[in-house]
Amino acid sequence: MNGFGYNNDLLKDLNQKFKNVWIFQRNQAPDENPTGGSGEWDILKPGHGIGFSGYESKNKLSNRFGIEISFSHPSLFL
User: What is the chain's pLDDT, residue by residue, as a tens digit (78 residues)?
Assistant: First the structure.
């Protein structure tokens, strides 16, 4: 799944860091491709959509988000 929503279109309560929610994302690559697999655990925040990359233990966020951002919203746990 890839996120294609623009971060600047997010509602204010979703356009933030979620302090107690972690995400691990890898670089996307075809199976058996040695360029994939790099990634790093990070606090969930917008930017893990299309265009995200991670190299040398650093995540480079994009200007896009996916459904992962709504999984941590507090209203889902009421």
Answer: 678 999 999 988 889 998 888 998 877 777 787 766 667 888 999 999 998 887 777 888 999 999 888 887 666 555
CA distance 7 to 16: 10
pTM of the model: 0.76
Q: Tell me the C-alpha distance between 76 and 57, whole Å.
A: 31
Spatial neighbors of 10 by CB under 8 A, at least 6 apart, are: 46, 65, 69
Q: Are 61 and 45 in contact (CB under 8 A)?
A: yes
Please say whether the beta carbons of 48 and 21 come within 8 A.
no
Q: Are 62 and 54 in contact (CB under 8 A)?
A: no
How far does Cα 74 stand from its chain's mean position? 18
- Which residues, listed in sequence order, are joined to residue 68 by a DSSP beta bridge? none
